[in-house]
Amino acid sequence: MIDGQVARRALAAWVLAAAAGAGCRAPRASPVTGPAASNEVLTCTSGENMSSDEITIQETTQPAISGHLVGVSNIWERSLPDGQGVVASRLSATVTIRDVASQQTRVERVFAGSVLSLGADQYCVVRVEPGKSAPGAITVRKLG
What is each CA distance from 64 to 3, 12, 84, 89, 108, in whole angstroms? Predict the structure, then answer.
């Protein structure tokens, strides 16, 4: 019998590959630009200029946000640095971002407080929720 979490992860990987639209080819990672290129992690706090609209992105889905397809997978604890470089175990997610216009794909690891750049827009990751009997999810809120 296949473990439900393993099956969900396999399905999520299949969905992301199918969404890449190139048959069996894996999506190509785009060159990393901006803060990620210098290994700097951008973080946000609740006091920053955030709108009240939250967007929840579940594993196995790929909504279009700010001209990008955003997929979430692999939610678990990882040792990751925050904006000040402090490394700690954090509940995090792998986010696959595909720019609809350029067809370039990149992968980021995010946790609550991370800033996710989608084109000219930035989003604060406000929650990372592991799946229990359903897929996990992240919730983001637009900055600005």
Answer: 30, 16, 31, 30, 17
